[in-house]
Amino acid sequence: MVMISTRNIIGDLDDVPKEWVFEFYLKLPEKLTGQSIKIKSIFNSREKTPSMYIYMDSNNTYKYKDFSSGYGGDALSLVQYLFNYPTRGRASFKIIDDYNEFVKHNEPVIKTELKAHSKYKVTDYQIRHWNNLDQAYWQSFKIGSKMLEHYNVSPLEFYEMTKEDNLGVQSVMKITNNHVYGYFKNDGTLYKIYQPKVKDNKFIKVRDYIQGSEQLRGDKSFLIITSSLKDLMAFNKLKIKDAECIAPDSENSMIPTNFMVNAIRHYKSIFILFDNDEPGQKAAQKYQKTFGTTSINLPMEKDLSDSIKVHGIDKVRENLLPLLKNAII
Q1: How far apart are the first and last CA of the chain?
Q2: Cα angle at 221 between 216 and 226, to 5 degrees?
Q3: DSSP H helical ranges for 140-256
Q4: Fewest C-beta in 10 Å: which of 84, 92, 202, 203?
């Protein structure tokens, strides 16, 4: 009689290390030990710049967020979306089967308690005076000093980022470049750093904030939600009456529900004016599905500020006004 060994066969998803799920299905080049990594989207084969993050949440559980497709969640949701399964249960069976097959040919993965590696955080910065390089950059979008001052944008001489390892040893990075800008609240609190000339990490989020919220007057009929503060400021240059703007932290970061509920009660209509690429439109659809807002797609350049840069204020206004009017009807 042939005996079948069941020593390594598991039947419970809880017995599968969650980091193994990400390592196996994403074919990661390194083992996950608590660090965050960034890879190209597994859901978007056309992506050139990596935008998919694998990270540990506040409960020290690995999650993912793919900014290209909008997908995100835990290990189960990754497999569910990856194989287009209708339920999480079907995804769990897939994981268990694949893990059992894996341990037939490899040593079982030893489950260990992982702790998120410390991350660099902004700990210091210095504001400098505006210069000609700053003026040339912002003026290309028709955004002047008064608008930048109104929305509390300041150029930075430098900023420092610090992290501490498990032994308490601190590492400090000091970044000094041209075209580095701090975005501040009205009380002077830094909430974001913007580096438009840097390929990766153009935005460094310091804290949650609804951009433009402190500048809302509340005396307009319509609220426009743009994809960025730069687009928000560019929209204001169009001088479209009876509309004001806000922007989330990013297109893939939803504005809190309590704010949206109050805004829906206050304004006659809310319009989403995000980038006209695939991620932007998917993000706009999410707002439409969640809050019933209307999406406006400006078919010019990738975003509103680039459209103004290339075509000018009058041309963009000429194209955008009919879209807004049609959406109101």
Answers
A1: 78
A2: 55
A3: 145-150, 229-236
A4: 84
Six token digits for residue 86 = 């209708």
For residue 296, what is the DSSP state? Answer: -
d(CA 57, CA 116): 8
- pLDDT at position 281 is 85
pLDDT at 317: 93
- 270 within 8 A of 291, measured Cβ to Cβ: yes
- In one-letter notation, the amino acid at residue 191 is Y
| CB neighbourhood size of 125 (10 A) | 19
Task: Read off the DSSP letter of residue 116.
Answer: P
**What pLDDT was estimated at residue 4?**
41
Count of positions (residues) in the chain: 329
**Cα angle for residues 102, 108, 114 (degrees, 5° grid):** 115
Residues of the chain predicted below pLDDT 50: 1-6
Let me know if 75 is exposed, middle or buried by CB neighbors in 10 A (0-12, 13-18, 19+). Answer: buried
pTM for the model: 0.71
Q: Residue 324 has which token pair?
A: 């807004």
- The CA-CA-CA angle for residues 107, 111, 113, to 5°, reads 150
45, 57 contact by CB (below 8 A)? no
Nearest to 229 by CA among 190, 183, 276, 277: 183
Quote the pLDDT of residue 2: 39
Domains in the chain, CATH or no CATH each:
13-105 (3.90.580.10), 119-209 (no CATH), 210-329 (3.40.1360.10)
Integer Cα distance of 302 and 227 in angstroms? 11
Q: Are strands 294-295 and 269-273 parallel, antiparallel or unpaired?
A: parallel
Helices marked H in the chain — which ranges? 18-25, 75-82, 88-105, 132-139, 145-150, 229-236, 257-266, 278-291, 304-311, 313-328
- CA–CA separation, 117 vs 36, rounded Å? 8
What are the contacts of 19-22 at 24+ separation with CB within 8 A? 19/62, 19/109, 19/114, 20/99, 20/102, 20/109, 21/75, 21/78, 21/79, 21/95, 22/54, 22/62, 22/64, 22/75, 22/78
Token pair for residue 260? Answer: 């949206």
